[in-house]
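Fold this sequence, please.
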Amino acid sequence: METYDNASWHSGGDFPQELPSEAGGTHIGMFLAWAVSSGLASAELREMTEAIENLERRAISPGTFFFEVCDGKLWEVDLNGEGNAFAKDYYASNAYYEDYESVLGANYPTLYHVPDDWDAFTRLKPTLDAKLASWRNRSR
């Protein structure tokens, strides 16, 4: 089973000392929350109804959702077949990081400083939607 990302991979080395370690998972939480909202989550993940409802109501942040349901790790098992195909092409190729940086990174000292909030998610979502639509057109 492939691990796409793990928050602990980001919280060492040059990680900003003033931030909590959870900031190493903000970008992962944004992707996962977007995947859920785009119908790319696995059936197993969708069964976590209370957490999904809290996410959909925006009662919890994308990062909080990610740590609650995935314990800081994004695995193949968290996505459905289409989600995995897209993630392997987009997320695993680092294209996601490039888009995350271009959309959200300009106003912060590092990408880890991007806030885990719905404003950041709202700014990122159109880019992810466009990447998915483009990928779907290429995959047909």
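The chain is about 55% helix and 5% strand. The two ends are 26 Å apart (CA to CA).
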